[in-house]
């Protein structure tokens, strides 16, 4: 069952791993049947890069918030953006990454499609109806509402955002928004870090961004 949302930012007394995410890829093979079920949906909008990296961040967050349900967070992260694979791909960049993108109709569409996919693939793999409902509660609105409903919802949202701070995330997402890496990195600092809901995510994002700025020489290449 999802845990209530604690006061923000969500504190942790455990040490936070801020090393490069490539050092701690997602562990285990228990989610491999889900990955295989949604392989086609991961081939849109570089989700075959975004989703595995976000899952690795989700596991890192769950390790310092042991009160959260790690399976709920991990499955929600894996599936949250699969809905992009079932919308009009020609609209994804033109509508979903321009202007007031949070209110773009295609953003709502991909959330709804993600819930449909979750309800298609999870029950045949043995996941309960209640678990599927909990996953869909997190997926629905993960981009279009600002508030999180539970601790698991908050950790999934943070994992979804943290991938952008790695140099691979900057390289892809900057292009989606029609920006060069340096101004996109500025946007991450000014807009995305303040959106993070957990203390651990803030620590990871701050460290990753500094590392990416140095690697990509954003002080010079502006």
Please tell me about this protein's structure.
- By secondary structure, the protein is mainly α.
- It has one domain: Hypothetical protein af1432.
- 55% of the residues lie in helices and 0% in strands.
- It contains 10 helices and no strands.
- It has helices at residues 32-37, 47-64, 70-79, 89-96, 105-121, 129-139, 151-162, 167-176, 181-192, 199-216.
- The longest helix is centred in the N-terminal third of the chain and has 18 residues, at 47-64.
What's the SSE blueprint?
Elements: H1 32-37, H2 47-64, H3 70-79, H4 89-96, H5 105-121, H6 129-139, H7 151-162, H8 167-176, H9 181-192, H10 199-216
Primary descriptors:
about 220 residues, mainly alpha, Hypothetical protein af1432
What's this, in brief?
The chain is 55% helix and 0% strand. The chain is mostly helical and 222 residues long. It is globular.
Strand content: under 5%
SSE topology string: HHHHHHHHHH
| Oligomer kind | single chain
Characterize the main sheet.
Answer: none
CATH class: Mainly Alpha
Care to count the β-strands? 0
Shape verdict: globular
* SS content category: mainly alpha
Tally of individual helices: 10
Unreliable runs: none
DSSP helix fraction = 40-55%
How many separate domains make up the residues?
A: 1
């Amino acid at each position: 069952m999802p845990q209530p949302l604690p006061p923000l930012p969500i504190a942790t007394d455990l040490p936070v791993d801020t090393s490069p995410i490539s050092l701690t890829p997602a562990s285990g093979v228990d989610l491999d049947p889900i990955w295989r079920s949604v392989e086609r949906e991961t081939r849109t909008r570089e989700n075959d890069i975004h989703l595995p990296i976000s899952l690795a961040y989700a596991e890192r967050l769950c390790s310092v918030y042991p009160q959260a349900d790690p399976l709920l967070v991990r499955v929600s992260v894996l599936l949250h953006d699969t809905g992009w694979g079932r919308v009009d791909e020609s609209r994804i960049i033109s509508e979903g990454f321009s202007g007031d993108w949070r209110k773009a109709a295609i953003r709502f569409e991909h959330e709804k499609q993600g819930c449909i996919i979750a309800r298609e693939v999870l029950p045949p793999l043995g996941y309960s109806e209640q678990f599927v409902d909990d996953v869909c509660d997190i997926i629905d609105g993960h981009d279009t509402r600002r508030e999180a409903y539970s601790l698991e919802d908050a950790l999934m949202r943070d994992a979804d955002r943290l991938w952008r701070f790695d140099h691979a995330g900057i390289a892809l997402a900057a292009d989606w928004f029609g920006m060069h890496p340096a101004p996109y990195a500025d946007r991450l600092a000014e807009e995305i870090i303040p959106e993070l809901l957990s203390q651990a995510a803030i620590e990871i994002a701050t460290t990753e961004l500094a590392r990416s700025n140095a690697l990509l020489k954003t002080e010079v290449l502006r």
